[in-house]
Amino acid sequence: MSQSAESLAFNEVTGELVIASANGDISIRNGKDGSYVKTIPYSGKPIAQSATFIEYDSAYSKLYFIHTNTNEYTSQLFVFKSFDVTNNYEELYTNESGMDLEVVDNFLIDSTGQFVFILGKVYDYYSKIPTVIVFDTISNEVVTQFDLAESFDDETYEGLALNKLDNRLFGSSTLYDIQSLPKRQFEKIVIQPEKVVMDIEEFQTLKAFKQYTDGAQIAIAASDVKWTTSNANIIRFVTGKLNAVSAGEATVTATYDGMSATQKIVVRDYIEHEPVNGVEADKTWTVEFNQPVNVQTIKEKNIYITNEQDDIVPVLYYVEQQNAKNVQLIPVKRYESGKTYTLWIKNVQSSANVELDQFVKKSFTIQ
């Protein structure tokens, strides 16, 4: 094997030895002579600093797999999978980055095979909180999670053990009856827009989340959500993104698993100035605002010039120190003779960080 073994599990029914590697690959060998049986290659996003865990259920009919990062300062990646041992280890379930853990330390399975207990840490700037997530393998849902930590004399003790005879969970210094653990329920879905006020011709990506009774939210795969709008003449979906078509208000609806959520979106109109003809090829435009601007908002996505193909034309920005109300747009190269260009102004803020109520479109043609 090219990768070091991270975790081992032995199937007492089939006599097979399962070896999980640091890169996430799973190798299955004959437990008696070590001969090759099967390899399940890891197909997810590579993790530089990782940990891998595998475990059979008590009936040895399912194999559970966890692959996660071990560096809490990197972006979160958490992969949880289950496989059907009786059907040549066919993959049953995958959950990637859908649980609130940064680092996984251990996981256990109860005697019925229904619940998987995952011990890990939710990382924040100040502390790494030991947390237990309880996953229901029947509903394929996280049913509850709770913090797990006890401190004595400035020392923190954390651990997890399971008594499969009476189905009780021991964590730190507390004993839990598995059946009495609070079970969270799927309550509703919620929509998280990038913005609720859009400009004409603007696009944004909407996301939908499953929200549970304990307040936890888990992202829903985009392919599983049905999106509709109340007025396609104002907003519409184009290749999965919401497109603002014309000024007005409309509502988007996300539908998933028989539930739906709505979000009102406002599309603001622009002020179209009178087109100008006969403009010089090296024209520098000076935009005058009614109060000093926040220079951090003077950038290409807020104030810019497009050509006839709607491509952004490179310009240099200059804000006068003595009069920060004026912004100059200096062309990097001369405009093409006879061509029409458009100056756009939107989302520029004042020096007090108040958005200036101005969405302007101005077309000009070069002489």
Automatic annotation (TrEMBL):
Keyword Signal (UniProt): yes
SUPFAM superfamilies noted in UniProt: Invasin/intimin cell-adhesion fragments, YVTN repeat-like/Quinoprotein amine dehydrogenase
Superkingdom, taxonomy of origin: Bacteria
Record-annotated SbsA Ig-like domain positions: 278-365
A matching Pfam family: Big_5
Keyword annotations of the record: Signal
The protein, known as: SbsA Ig-like domain-containing protein
